[in-house]
Amino acid sequence: MTLFDLVYFTILALYVLGTLFYMAGAFSHRVQLKRLAGFIAGAGLLLHTLILIHFLAATSISSLSVGYFIKLFSWCLVAIFFILWWRFKLEFLALIASPIAILLFIFSFTHKTAAKMPPHLAGPFFGLHIGTLFGSMALLAMAFAAGIIFLRLEKKIKGKARLSEMDREMPALSTFDRVNYWAVVVGFPLYTIGMLAGFVFAKLSWGQVLTGDPKEIVSIVVWLLFAVLFHNRLARGWWGRRPAVWAIGIFTLAIGSMIVINFFVPSHHSFRPIPSVEKPALTAPTNP
């Protein structure tokens, strides 16, 4: 086991322990366990941050592996969770952020191949493209989780069903809607910046802004849906159930396209190499 393997194992162990302690604290109603979970997961995030910075400083972006970018997305989820926890005291989001981050971190070990980008293209526009989109996706994940819980609690409250102990520990419905609001207000501009940076990167890489790539088409559809949600939240005062349903649908489409297109469909955004067709070598004709 190398030093880096030990660091990765430590990060994973801290995330898992943080999740388990938080779940134990939530079910036993012990605030001390939840606080301990926060400190443990925070230590994992700090170590996660340091290892990402190390590889970014020691290696050119064009040489970074696909696994690095998956780890970066995992980091974004945990970082966004801690920001929302610190700003709005929304600790319940740990129930969605931690498991997804853990799964992504584990999954990153199966993709150690380099992204193989030309060094002159893997510059600021690519970094801006990846960073803003990952940040937006992490915010959408929080809105997705808040939306699921909002719909579940609203159904129980309207149906006058019996609330479990866990349900009683949850904040008011307005708190879940506030998560949706901030995820949309901050996430949509980030997604827009990421799309624009991607168009610039595409122009530099392939000579045209739109290449007909499946990921481009789905991303534009996601942006249009996101724009509708953004407009209606700010201009028309959408609240509650409707923006929750929209956030769930947009995140499902975005994460679904990431899984299906990036891993299974040959494209510019594929995490697997596109097989090249070798042309037969030309031989000189022989005299009869």
TrEMBL record:
Species of the source: Oceanidesulfovibrio marinus
Source organism phylogeny: Bacteria, Pseudomonadati, Thermodesulfobacteriota, Desulfovibrionia, Desulfovibrionales
Domain of life, source organism: Bacteria
Stretches that traverse the bilayer: 6-24, 36-56, 68-85, 92-110, 130-153, 179-202, 214-232, 244-265
GO MF annotation, one: heme binding
Keywords: Membrane, Transmembrane, Transmembrane helix
Domain (Cytochrome c assembly protein) ranges: 70-259
The protein's name in its UniProt record: Cytochrome C assembly protein
GO biological process, one term: cytochrome complex assembly
